[in-house]
Amino acid sequence: MKAVYYEEFGSADILKLGEQPKPEPGPDQVLVKVAATSVNPIDRRLRSGELKDFFQYSWPVIPGWDVAGRSEAVGEDVEDFQVGDDGVGLGFTWSVGPGAYAEYMAIDETAIAKKPANLSWHEAASLPLVNLTAWQSLNESY
Fold first, then answer.
1. 7, 59 in Cβ contact below 8 A?
2. 65 three-class SS
3. Is the CA virtual torsion 77, 93, 89, 2 positive or negative?
């Protein structure tokens, strides 16, 4: 599959466009054919190595946590998604590796929801991380 990826820390100049293996969904994952993603400040911070002490990296890294797309396959333990369902999700994990800047992304079923029909792919992909950030600012005290 085509993907944007990087193999070392650095500036945006290290980003490459090329072929990467298509992910296989795990037992509790949905394989999404990516229709849209978004770019967030965390992508730059992860790429630069600024957060390398907080995350594990699986090289090469395909960035992108926000995803909107159609499910193409589901793992054997997936209950709420079927092939052909439209979804929107946040592929955050503490291990940085395969993300949404690609044709396909495997995402945990607990991290994806059905896409509202009244949202475009681009609108849906713009929501996951910013919604989490807003929720955290309203609900978590530090």
1. yes
2. coil
3. negative
Joined tokens for residue 135: 């929720």
Pairing mode, if any, of strands 56-57 and 66-74? unpaired
Instruction: Determine the pLDDT at residue 46.
Output: 96
Per-domain boundaries in the chain: 2-139
What is the domain class of 2-139 according to CATH?
Answer: alpha beta
Nearest to 105 by CA among 11, 12, 3: 3
User: What pLDDT sits at residue 117?
Assistant: 97
Where are the extended beta strands (E) located within the chain? Answer: 2-5, 16-19, 29-37, 56-57, 66-74, 86-90, 95-96, 104-108, 112-114
CA distance 21 to 85: 23
Token representation of residue 48: 């630069």
pLDDT at 141 over 80: no
Averaged over 45-55, what is the pLDDT?
96
With contact defined as beta carbons under 8 Å apart, do 50 and 42 qualify? Answer: no
Q: What is the pTM of this model?
A: 0.93
